[in-house]
Amino acid sequence: MKYYLIAGEASGDLHASNLMKALKERDEEAQFRCIGGDLMQQEGGALVAHYREMAYMGVGAVVRHLPTILENMRRVKRDIRAWNPDAVILVDYPGFNLAVAKYVHANLRRTKTFYYIAPKIWASREHRIKSIRRDVDELFSILPFEKAFFESKHHYPIHYVGNPTADEVRDFLEKARVGNDDFLRRNGLSASKPIIAVLCGSRKQEIKANLPAMLEATDLLADDYQVVVAGAPGIDHDFYASFTPGHHVTVLHQGQTYQLLYNAHAALVTSGTATLETALFKVPQVVCYATPMPMAVGLLRKMVLKVKYISLVNLIAGREVVPELVADKFSPSNISRHLQAILNGSQRKAMLNGYDELAAAIGKAGASDHAAAKMVERLRQTTV
Predict the structure, then answer these.
(1) CA-to-CA separations, 180 to 253, 256, 260, in angstroms, rounded
(2) Which pLDDT score, from 0 to 100, does residue 297 have?
C-alpha cells in the first residue's frame, strides 16, 4: 500500500520514521512519499520537501512567509492527488495538517486520513474538533489524558497507543553505556564533574529568546558544574556561538541530546517534547519559556489556555512535578533559584518520585507498533 506522511519538525521526523519502520514490518509492499526530514528519507520515503522549508514559528514569521506557506500547501495537495495514496498519515503540525486533511476528505474519497500524534486542541483552539470529526478517519493519541478529552467530552473515539518518546528513550537506555566514554572524550567533557544540560528549543526564534537567560542563570554554577547546550537539528553551530561569549559553556553538535541527558545531573529545558524526554531520563529539570510582552502574556495565558500547565510532564502527571517559568515568571534570577533547588536535597527527590508517576501513567510500550497495526488493519478492511 501507498502511504503519504507529513511531519513539520524534527520530533515529527523521528516519530514518523519509527512509524514507517513499523508499517514496513506489517506491509511488505509499503511505499512511502513524505514531507519530513532525513530520518524519514532513510526509512525509504521519497522526500517531496524537507520540514526545514515548512517550519515557521510565531505570527510575525508566518505573515512574512505567507506566500511560501501557501505555495507549499498547493504543492503538497497537487502531489497527494497525483500520487493517490491509500493513506495520508499526518504527524502533529496541526495548522498545516488539518488543512491537508480537509483537502483529502473532499477530493480523495478512497484515501484514508490517519492522524498520528493528535492536535493539542485541549490546550487551545478546541473548535478544531469539528474539522477533526469531519476530516480524520482515525486519530492516534500518544498522551494518556487525551482519551478522556476526546471520548468523554467530545464523543469522538480515538486510539491511545502509548508514547513514542518513551519507546525511543527505552531503546536508547538499553544500549546507553556503549560509547559513553567516547561521547565525553569527543566533546571535551569530564566524567567527574556534574553536567547541567541546556535544551533551549529546536528553532532559531526559541533559541534566541531562551538561551541568553538560561546561560546567565548558570554562571554562578560554572565552577562546580559543566554547562552543556544540546545542538538542535538544522541549527548551525555558529548560531549558538553568538550567545556564548562570556559564559563557561560547551555546545554540542546536533544528534547528541539523548547522550547528554544520559550524563546530566540537572537540566534547563524549553517546553515541548524535550521536557518529557528529560523526565524519562530521570534528570531533574526547570522548564523555561520566554515570550514577547511577558507581563501581558502572563495575564492572558489563563484566559487563552484551557489547561493549567504547559509542560508534558505536568500535563501527564496531572500536577506540578516540574516548575514552569513561563512569560512573566521567566528571568535569569528565577531560573537560577529553581535550578539550585533541584541540584540536591528534598526538591530533587520529590521530582524524581514524580517522574515515576509519569512513567506509570504513560503505560504500554510500542506506540509505533500499535499505531501501525491498527492502520494496516483498517486499510485491509476497506480493500476487502
Answers:
(1) 16, 11, 10
(2) 54
